[in-house]
Amino acid sequence: MRSTNNNSSLAYRDIPSVDLVMREPAVKAAVVTHGRHVVVQELRALLARQRSAIEQSAEPLYPSGGGLVEALLNRLDSIHRLSIRRVFNLTGTVLHTNLGRATLPVQAIEAVAQVLAAPSNLEYDLDRGVRGERDAAIISLLCRLTGAEAAVLANNNAAAVLLALHSLARGKEVLVSRGELVEIGGSFRLPEIIEAAGCTLREVGTTNRTHWQDFERAITMQTAAILKVHTSNYAISGFVATPRESDLAHLARARNLPFVIDLGSGSLLNLTRWGLPNEPTPMQALRAGADLVTFSGDKLLGGPQAGIAVGTQAVVERLRRNPMRRALRLDKGRIAAMEAVLRLYLDPDRIAEHLPTIRALTRSVDDIETAAKRMLPVMQRYVGELASVQIAGCASQVGSGSLPVDRLPSAALRIESKVCTDEDILKALRALPIPVIARAHKGAVWMDLRALDDEAAFVDQLRLVAPMSPA
Ligand SMILES: *Cc1c(COP(=O)(O)O)cnc(C)c1O
To answer: Is it the case that residue 94 has pLDDT exceeding 90?
Structure first.
């Protein structure tokens, strides 16, 4: 013993041996569950902490073994519990970037499971028995659905924009309106993407008003592309003007420049058929004369994370030839998921039944209110005496930058308490086995039920847990 302190040498003697602890029945059971290696490793780490606690304060962390086994089992549990888990998104934002955006339909989940669990013909042509293209099926679906001549895929929309600019304008200038220099969720800032692609940003017009003639005047020998960005997460109103896409397309064609539109979300459907606000589609952008249109796979499209670029054969070919495409490509799981999701679009009349994103966005207030009535008693039981729960009207938003100013009428369970703070309630909800993510607003906690797809699981967990306790 290093210490000369008599108490601490006694305390050292209390530290059990690894072998002794390993013989405890609970620890033997943990070995069966987790394997011997990690149990011994964690136990050694705990005993080392015990020793250094005694060295520093002569006080053992676990007096005469008490609590040591429990601490060990807790550590093993936390190592084995996945840190990424399912949650309930009751924030009122349907496509919540922090909560993983779009959720996939069963058709896509099955497709992913199949290709991840077994070898697949990912890059193999079954007809001819030779090497094939991994994205051939998706590209033909995309061309069919958007009317584009060609398409290319990337890791996400940011990657699609990067690939487009790098392929079309590296070492040269890209013209963008000053009203469209967007930042999306902190990490996508258009000026920075342009720079990262090796291009120079040439700002055109003013923040509120830009005309196509401003673009015409800005074109020089150095210009390599005109970029239009859908200002998806904000709206400028008042004295404003933006050039028509068809005017920019004309100008670009006359000067032999590619005209690229970053749509951000880009729905493949006309959402107004369900009474939803209009969101620009890639089809409209192509018809207006864009050479290339980029959008996300996991926003309004409702698929896996991906970046999609559709456009003319000539322009898309320049992206396909860029060696950087290899570094930005999709893995087989997302390719399978994307193909399954795009197939659902072949039957637009039933897409709201099959695709969770569209289902959530098109749910009627009546339907959501009826669900709220079913859930009210079980929620009231859960909050117990600490709070009261009511059904209240609220407004959901699409999220992920789509339709930034439009709100969808919805219904929420609203929890109000005189005893707990909103933060206490939010925290208790997050601590449930399947965490519930709600929102504090105007002195209450709101749970917008629009995006709740699995009501049964939500109700079951509230029935099974102990009522909320005071913080
Ligand atoms: C969301 C968005 C992006 C980034 O798309 P990711 O798929 O998240 O990379 C780029 N541009 C616009 C206009 C967007 O709305």
So the answer is: yes
